[in-house]
Amino acid sequence: MLDLTSLSKAQLIELVRLALSRGTLLDADIAGARRHALRAACGLFGGIRPFVRQARQSGFDVDASNLSRWLSGHAALSTAKVDQLLVALGLPDMQPRGDIVHVWRPHHSRPCDLAAAFSLYFQAGASVALVHASKTRGPSLHAVHDGRTCALITIGQALCLPDGLKDGPRLRIADPERWLSGKVSVEAFKAAWGEQAEPAAPSLEDILAALQDGEGVSQAVQRLWGEKP
Predict the structure, then answer these.
(1) pLDDT at 219
(2) Which residues does 1 contact at the CB level (< 8 Å), separation at least 6?
């Protein structure tokens, strides 16, 4: 199911135009570079097998070898399983969830293409801030944020964050243990960055109701976001 809260106003406008022009939302074929990026996203959770073990908690029950084959380009998963995979990765409909804090712990000794993985969650770049640095040359905890998507990633010395990330503030937090455990709300995450909570995105039903009242697509989305058209 499409997570409308993860869409920007521009994406909502395009979504409604597609729905009006074609009568349905389109399922894009996930192939090539996208599957490579999804394999890299599994690496954020420690690799395919650790990811599969964690994903079972969200209802994604699939054999790790079949997932690996699908990520390599084979038709090893059904459409329903692919949908479950994206949900387990926090990427429903290939859009990063903005209502959770993504928590990633790549394995320090397994190759992980962080740049490819980050391209799925932070499509327009992001800022990174140090949350906790180990005093014993162990892994450090970083927060990554692009204004909507929030993530915590534990980085060992064998891994480097992708180039191009902007330096964010050094986060001052009162409860580092909670952050290290990954049990941080979006509100607490954004508060640490000094941000105000974002307004909730209007639902597709809200937009279509406004369209029935005679408003244009852009005007309907802007009004429902609380802005003047």
Answers:
(1) 65
(2) 92
Angstrom distance (rounded) from CA 128 to CA 183? 19
Distances (CA, A) of 10 to 134, 177, 185, 217, 219: 41, 38, 26, 10, 12
SS3 132: strand
Burial of 78 (0-12, 13-18, 19+ CB in 10 A): exposed
The dihedrals phi and psi of 172, each to the nearest 5 degrees, come to -105, 110
Q: Which of 115, 104, 148 is nearest to 6 (CA)?
A: 148
Q: Are 125 and 164 in contact (CB under 8 A)?
A: yes
- 104's tokens: 């990633």
Residue spans of the chain under pLDDT 50: 1, 21-28, 228-229
Centroid of chain to Cα 164 = 18
Distance CA(42)–CA(48), nearest Å, equals 6
pLDDT value of residue 7:
66
Q: Dihedral, CA atoms, 214, 219, 223, 229, nearest 10 degrees? A: -130
Residues 117 and 167: beta-carbon distance below 8 Å: no
Q: What is the pLDDT of residue 58?
A: 74
Residue in this structure with the two tokens 């209007």, named with its chain if needed: 202
Q: What is the pLDDT of residue 79?
A: 87
